[in-house]
Amino acid sequence: MDAPADRSEPSGYDILVVDDNAEMRAYIRHCLRDFEGGGHRIREAADGQEALDALAGHPCDLVITDVVMPRMDGLTLGRLVSEHYPGVPVLFITGEAPADARRRAARLATGTVLPKPFNGRKLCRALDHLLHPHS
After folding, report:
1. Residue 91: which of 125, 121, 117 has the closest Cα?
2. Domain at 65, CATH number
3. pTM to 2 decimals?
4. Residue ranges making up the domain that contains 31
5. N or C, which end of the chain is more exposed by having fewer CB within 10 Å?
6. 94 within 8 A of 71, measured Cβ to Cβ
7. H-only helix segments in 1-135
8. At what angle do helices 120-131 and 22-32 cross, to 10 degrees?
9. Band of the pLDDT at 132, cuts 50, 70, 90?
10. Is residue 7 domain-resident?
């Protein structure tokens, strides 16, 4: 499949936000407004299957996904992203059983978990750690 999006242009990251709750997607979009200077292309999907469809036509730099969703959950999406788009990091957001989600997400080399509730600062810190693990 395709490689991560080309980062040669000066704009921000191409980020796919996946959550079945439209208000949560809007909140994450708001939090990302100033992350690393802003200018990000933010796409949205309501579940894992919709996200895979969006990625098939245009890979991204980063996936932020809820864990619990209909049709395809976030952990399944994360596994498929890891298999088909190596190097694309995944941030898993969960309000349910964070220890279980962390354990399952830890099996994916490019994923990390952010428990709910969270604020913009915690989201940006998790993304910074995910995108720049050795800084």
Report:
1. 125
2. 3.40.50.2300
3. 0.85
4. 18-131
5. C
6. no
7. 22-32, 48-57, 74-84, 98-106, 120-131
8. 70
9. confident
10. no
